[in-house]
Design goal:
CATH architecture of the largest domain: Sandwich
CATH superfamily of the largest domain: Jelly Rolls
Shape: globular
CATH topology of the largest domain: Jelly Rolls
């Protein structure tokens, strides 16, 4: 599938059984605007240099290197060098990865969440395992082959994860985390920042400042990204784009489409088509 730039292309597939998505893509120049996913992101840069901002740093993922991102981590993407970059990525649902990791341990902490040690990783074992898992899923190998490849990848991934206590407002950011929870609870309502301020007894400027100090993003941008991530979930389930737009408080379908394409380089209709299983013939 071609993008706006004739040199750009992407191929996305969605596995309805597991919710895992695979993306194979090439970009030159600007790749995508800042956004985040509700899934874990495990990827491999095939060629070129992939540059992106995440965790308040600029990263350069080089050929053969892995990149790792947690749910909710804001990132963007661009090609700083001529010729662009090509990469393959696995989008893994939180519950699926936690269940798979859980099979490797006798006990897992209840109040902790899975976290990646670093955004970039030069582990050749993980790179090879990620590539194999990607190809098995993307090319729709027999399920037992997919299972074996993903088991191998999860084993390799354990060297790059830790358990982090679920964030409830450490380092004096209690208000910001309460605001975040409020945005999650009201993402399907057409709320104003003034509503948030009234809820917590502060003015809009205090709310905005507290949130940005904790998350380095404004509440309204966070809410848009939250709605876009949820739109992917709704579209994958077959909901009409017009209904998704209405449910998530976009003014209309075209408004959703503009934001969606800026973040994911696909229209909602194109994304939904990738998620629609093709019936077996015969």
């Amino acid at each position: 599938m071609k993008s706006d730039n004739s040199q750009n292309w992407l191929n996305l597939k969605h596995d309805s059984a597991t919710g895992i998505e695979t993306l194979h893509a090439h970009f030159e120049g600007h790749a995508y605007d800042s956004h985040w996913h509700e899934t874990y992101v495990i990827g491999l840069t095939e060629s070129g240099v992939q540059q992106f901002d995440c965790r308040h740093k600029t990263h350069n993922s080089l050929e053969g290197g892995c990149f790792l991102s947690e749910p909710g981590e804001v990132h963007n993407g661009r090609a700083p060098c001529e010729g662009g970059f090509t990469y393959r990525t696995l989008y893994i649902p939180q519950g699926w990865l936690r269940d798979q990791i859980g099979t490797l341990y006798e006990q897992m902490p209840d109040q902790f969440e899975l976290s990646f040690n670093n955004t970039l990783c030069a582990d050749q074992r993980l790179a090879a395992a990620t590539s194999s898992a990607f190809l098995a899923k993307h090319l729709e190998d027999p399920k037992i082959v997919q299972e074996g490849c993903f088991d191998h990848m999860v084993h390799a991934l354990t060297q790059h994860i830790n358990w982090r206590q679920k964030k409830q407002g450490e380092n004096g950011h209690n208000l910001a985390y309460r605001i975040r929870d409020y945005l999650h609870d009201h993402m399907e309502e057409d709320i104003l920042l003034q509503d948030v301020a009234r809820e917590f007894g502060y003015d809009r400027f205090q709310i905005n400042r507290a949130f940005k100090n904790a998350f380095h993003i404004s509440p309204h941008v966070y809410l848009i990204q939250l709605r876009l991530a949820r739109a992917r979930t709704f579209l994958a389930k077959g909901m009409r784009a017009s209904d998704v737009a209405h449910q998530l408080c976009f003014s209309d379908q075209s408004h959703l489409g503009r934001w969606f394409k800026r973040a994911y380089r696909l229209t909602p209709a194109a994304y939904q088509k990738c998620c629609t299983p093709i019936p077996d013939k015969g």
